[in-house]
Amino acid sequence: MATCDLTCLLPGVRLRTPIVLASGILGTSVSLLVRAARAGAGAVTTKSTGLAPRAGHPNPVAVDWGHGIINAIGLSNPGAEEEVLLLAEAKVLLAALGVPLIASIFGGSVEEYAQVAGMIAAARPDLIEVNISCPNVVDDFGTPFAARCDSAAAVTAAVKAAVGGVPISVKLAPNVPNIGRIAQAVVAAGADAITAINTMPGMVIDAEAGRPVLSNRTGGVSGPALKPIALRCVAEVASAVDVPIIGTGGVTTGRDAAEMLMAGATAVGVGSAVWYRGAEALGEIVTELAAFMVSQGYRTLDEFRGLARR
Amino acid sequence: MHQTFAIAEIHSENYRTKTLIFDRALPSEPGQFVMAWLPNVDEKPYSIAGADPFSMTVVAVGPFSEALHALQPGDRVWIRGPLGQGFRLPEQAAGKYILLAGGGYGVAPLHFLAQRAAASGVTVDVCIGARTADEVLLAGAFERLGAAVHVMTDDGSLGRQGLITVAVEAAMGARTPVAVYGCGPVPMLEAVELLCRSRGVPHQLSWEARMRCGMGLCGECEVHGREKDGWLACVDGPVSEG
Which CATH entry fits the domain spanning A8-304: 3.20.20.70, 3.10.450.50, 3.40.50.1400, 3.90.1150.10? Predict the structure, then answer.
């Protein structure tokens, strides 16, 4: 088989493959992060951590509704202090595998984001992903920050000032009128990269029960249903800013990954595919992407990155 | 999505255990589990106690299991599944001998396995461990399948007094099984695993964990501290093979 170069460049770090384990999937322990790396991920992202431990929502927290998944786990996490220990241990094991570590964080206020970012930066992850877009927490977390340019920029600037040079990627929400403007605002405030997109807020109702399936009533839609939404958002972000993009949303095959790169993504986040295909999905998508490139005569990702925007 | 199953029949197994027998089959293997949801109450994992008709053995230990106990024939339960990896019977099973070890309420999925084994011509011995005679589950049902049943209780109120591992060790010593199948509390499973390893006997053990998504995504049900690196009870298990 002809060989092709699958490497790509995120701020400060080169990935051996463009497939990134998305936040919230298998990112709860060192052993699961290592498993994702061994499966073939080029980088792995931890589940978002906040300042204090959170238990998350009661069950049901996730369901496959036929064309995708909906989830509202509720940002369960062990708190930043505990997370720093996990990151330190994970970093050593992942470095031996040549796989960068991305640490996802969230906060309830601009100040809290900065505080969490400062604590997490001490563990020196390769990248800090700033989750300003989790749709699942009903109080002040997430949505408000990702929904407006000023609040998104305020969080970005505060985090950037707190991390002592660790590069940051800001994770955007799809449900905004103009994602390109939000992207411009966070890049102007210091974002080194953009992760686009988070899940899409939605609701799945069980007709026999006569109520939403999720205990939280609403949740984030992911999987195949999200892909066209993600492709559009990534293309708009790519047109608006000139920083690397981790394109995430509904990628379950190598061909999906190629589409995401063609929309302008630098690397490709994968999450729900782990439900459809197991953790092996991460490596299988890499293999399928390579086979697609060979079939189309592409030798590097750069040869077709952004192709669909030209 | 969940599918609804209506309760057809309810069997009382002991003073705090009921088996809910539903109105139709759920094609599944022994050792697999479902997520059972009662809207506005909760959703929790239950091992499958029978596939045709689908049934679940429920011990009243908290608000959700008490809500399941309050249901009557005709009432519905919302089910996601079957989920996870179940037990595998030996290849060319007929005529072979297997040993089952059920601690406390871990007995339920083993009875489903014993049914399948008996139908395949496998000889089955079962060791049941419980705190007291009142807590012993399904001993008669195993006997009706033709299995030899060895009961151990903590207080000696039924069978012999002591830990289930005493009976497991004795049974393995009397006749070496082609495989041991275990379900129960973690310390019991670890002890059974040790016994099997020291004798080089293949074993399949079902591990309990707190389940959330049941889809291999959230990481909540990871079984830590074993050589199973990053092992999730919901998709990699609940049954492990060694």
Answer: 3.20.20.70
